[in-house]
Amino acid sequence: MVWVILGHACIVAFKYSDNPELRKEVEKEFLFQTVTNGTYSVDTFFCIGGILVSFIYFRTNAKGSLDRLTQGTRGFTSGFLQFIGLLAYRFARLTAPYMFMLGVVQVSMKWFYHNSVYEPPTDDHINCPNYWWRNALYINTLFPVEQMCMLWSWYLADDSQFYVLGAIILILAASHFKTAAGAMVVFLFSSWMTTGYIAWSNNHAPSSDDPLALFDKIYDKPWTRLGPYLIGMATGWFLFKIDCRMKMSKVTVVTGWMLSSGVLLGLIYGLYNTELGPISSAVYSSLSHTVWAIAISWIVIACSTGYGGYVNSLLSATILYPFSRVTYCAYLVHPLVIRFLVMHTDHPIHLGKDMMAIIFLGQMVSSYLLSFVVSLTFEAPIVTMLKILAPNKRKKIQ
């Protein structure tokens, strides 16, 4: 989440600076690849989302908890009830804070449009009143980006669409595992081929193009971002099958960590001062996000089976728990915090490395402080209600 905030902070700051040529200079620096390739942070979210959905579904189904939801029905009816239950849970879980922030974005951007010396970075003051229902249905990425309200909500739309597809595959896997596995493979290859073709037909060069250059064709479209989610689902099933227990030799563990670290670092920094041809660019665009997810999956598997070492200690640190609980609200809130900073000023920002660091740290702290408030007000009550209504909870109460 910190990586996401860093990337968005830099994008907006460059847009409203009085020395935009600075971006051309810092982009030549090796470490700036950390910002340029911050798009992989979203693939981490997709991968983790797929892992959790798959693992929790199989574990819940194995315990028989879903039987109470379907009330003894079988076949198509049972699967349909499960599907409706999964969708209803997700919609209730996500929508309240999301719709609140969408309203805040609409009102604030309309105010800034009439009172700020700058034009808003996007047309939320126009799009939100007209197209808010697309956000509410989580289908806004299926329409042109020029009509999108709350631009950063593309992630929620894609993740929700993946959830719908994943729910169908998981329900199918409960009774027809091979068919479900085959469907996953087909979807994965289809995503690769589609992404590669779009990148090739648009002459997309990952090493030199702005990572958001093809936002409306590659970046935000579900059919180009599906790979990491499917890898996550496969990982979740694997962890369920082994019950998070697995014996690995020291050689296997060391090799796994070296390959995972090398892949992650290679994807972030490997294209520095490198030019790819049309075919290699298309292949890289289609496979890189999936490869990233595979490396992330190794970290999850290693940490879950007792081979995480210091990495597991860091990721499981108690101090991170409250921050992890408000990650969703931090994602919703932080772009608005960034916009408030720049659009409240009456002159451009003169950027430098020190100034950018101060801006980023201030926006990160402010975003998390506000996310706690939004979470306590809109998210936590819904989560508590869902826990009360859950089948396991009802059984204990009865």
Tally of discrete structural domains: 2
Strand content: under 5%
Number of helices: 18
Low-confidence stretches: 393-398
Structural class: mainly alpha
Helicity level: over 70%
Largest sheet geometry = none
Q: How many β-strand stretches?
A: 0
Mean pLDDT: 90
Mind explaining what this structure looks like?
This protein is mainly α. The protein folds into two domains: 118 residues, no CATH class; 264 residues, no CATH class. Helix content is 75%, strand content 0%. The chain has 18 helices and no strands. Helix 1 runs parallel beside helix 16. The chain is globular.
Based on the model shown, name its key terms.
398 residues, 75% helix, mainly alpha, globular
Please describe the topology of this protein.
Blueprint: H1 2-15, H2 21-26, H3 33-36, H4 40-62, H5 65-70, H6 75-115, H7 124-136, H8 154-173, H9 177-201, H10 215-219, H11 222-241, H12 250-269, H13 278-304, H14 309-315, H15 321-325, H16 327-343, H17 353-389, H18 391-397
Helix pairs in contact: 1-16, 1-17, 4-8, 4-11, 4-13, 6-7, 6-8, 6-16, 6-17, 8-9, 8-11, 9-11, 9-13, 11-13, 12-13, 16-17
